[in-house]
Design a protein that fits this description.
By secondary structure, the chain is of the alpha+beta class. It folds into two domains: 101 residues, Ribosomal Protein L22, Chain A (Alpha-Beta Complex), CATH 3.90.470; 101 residues, Ribosomal Protein L22, Chain A (Alpha-Beta Complex), CATH 3.90.470. The chain has five helices and eleven strands. It has a five-stranded antiparallel β-sheet with strand order 7-11-10-9-8, covered by helices on one side. Strand 8 and strand 9 form a beta hairpin. The longest helix has 21 residues.
Length: 210
Amino acid sequence: MPIIYNKVVYDDCQLGIWEIEESYEEMYSKIHFFDGEIEKLKNYKSTVRQTEWLSVRRLLREMRGEPTQIIYNEQRKPFLFNSNSNISISHSRTMTGILLSKNLKLGLDLEYMTPNIEKVAHKFINNDEYLVNETEQRNFHLYIHWCAKEALYKLCDKQDINFKKNITIEPFEPDECGEIMGWVDNKFWHDKFLLRYFKLKNYAVVYCTK
């Protein structure tokens, strides 16, 4: 079954994760398309990107039990059409994730982990943040930081946020799963957030609510 994770993770927040095993043709055949969506799908030149787009709609239907249209604002923040529920979406390689809530603002990010993140750590880690030295744990530690900042960026409406300057993750020791605290400090926000993370196969998953 392509859904490998589907749980109420906090309050009314439902987290679903889909592992893409189907071909583009198989995924396409199971989608209900709303007006204009086939044209939007065709705008993606890569079959891989098209399959990701389809997997989001397929996962959302499984989680809600019915086809639901996703729309976007100017910052590319997703919303559910004709619904009060909030949504956050993330995908990386063969994994697609959706976080849903009726009452809370949301941020979700999942990333496939490679050693290359060390090369770009200086772009998003600031001097107040702590990293372990052991190589394998350090790699996961970096991905938790990156995913946490991406999740906060989404929750805060993608407005005026530099990952290194405006977001700080408080020091923590990485484990297979856990809770961490993060600060967002810019002209729109000066707030502290609780984030939850876990490892799923070779992916780091982080989500937050407000």
